[in-house]
Design brief:
Layout: E1 3-7, H1 18-25, E2 29-32, E3 50-53, H2 59-71, E4 76-80, H3 90-100, E5 104-107, H4 112-120, E6 133-136, H5 151-155, E7 160-163, H6 170-181, E8 186-191, E9 199-204, H7 208-215, E10 221-225
Pathway: Cofactor biosynthesis; adenosylcobalamin biosynthesis
Domain Tetrapyrrole methylase: 2-208
Keywords: Cobalamin biosynthesis, Methyltransferase, S-adenosyl-L-methionine, Transferase
């Protein structure tokens, strides 16, 4: 018996990986966050599968369901939105499964920031403009950020900054980013990336908050800031250059 942590992708069912689909189809128990995982994805569950919405469960209750399935010899599909390597709370679940002697593995998924970049039709790393992507969040009403990982500190590195779980504090994050990026820095917000009701907002740091409020976006959105979003004049990458030695 194994608990399969599965990246369910950003929302669109057809962005679920083939491996993820097959693991869901072979697992008699499926744990999922009903507020994030589309119900159509649960159609891959085998007939008679136990489907447990974890949206209102505590960590202890979620792990208890996994341990119970293990005691009955049943595989578990544990669906995480996006990719489980980022902001999925997977680490704390694994820690408890280790203590309980329950085996697990991980199936990656398409992360929300990648779906947002695709919606924007932009590469987040552009030659001589940005070669670093920082994935982060803010600490409001959540676990405190580690020392040195404030937006002010991270903003000094430049590059492309991607914020998850932060759009509800758009005014606050803009205020913290302007000193390093400047008010005219390109910014974008993509809500419900890859879904039919996807919303894409493009602007600058000095007007993106107003656009977010006007659109009524409060959750399930990715905020991206950095010059790569509007880069036009930059050299071609050396990767495909005719001067690169390919022998």
């Amino acid at each position: 018996m194994t608990v399969h942590f599965i990246g369910a992708g950003p929302g669109a069912v057809d962005l679920l990986t083939i491996r993820g689909r097959d693991l869901i189809a072979s697992s008699p128990v499926c744990l999922y966050a009903g507020s994030l995982v589309p119900p159509e994805m649960l159609e891959y569950c085998p007939p008679g599968a136990q489907k447990i919405d974890t949206a209102l469960l505590t960590l202890a209750e979620i792990v208890e369901e996994m341990v119970r399935a293990h005691s009955h010899g049943l595989d578990v599909a544990r669906l995480a939105s996006g990719d489980p390597s980022v902001f999925s709370a997977m680490a704390e679940q694994m820690r408890r499964l280790d203590a309980a002697g329950v085996p697990y593995d991980v199936c990656p998924g398409v992360p929300a920031y990648a779906a947002a970049a695709a919606a924007l039709r932009r590469e987040l790393t552009v030659p001589t403009v940005a070669q670093t992507v920082t994935l982060t969040r803010i600490a409001a009403r959540a676990t405190p950020m580690p020392q040195g990982e404030s937006l002010g500190a991270l903003g000094t590195a430049g590059g492309t900054l991607v914020l998850h779980l932060a759009v509800h504090r758009i005014d606050e994050l803009v205020k913290e980013l302007v000193p390093n990026y400047g008010p005219d820095c390109p910014a974008a917000v993509v809500a419900h990336a890859s879904r039919e009701h996807e919303i894409v907002l493009r602007g600058r740091l000095d007007d993106i908050a107003g656009a977010v409020h006007e659109a009524g976006i409060q959750r399930t959105a990715v905020v991206i800031v950095g010059p790569a979003l509007a880069a036009e004049h930059f050299p071609d990458s050396h990767l495909y250059s005719d001067t690169r030695c390919r022998s």
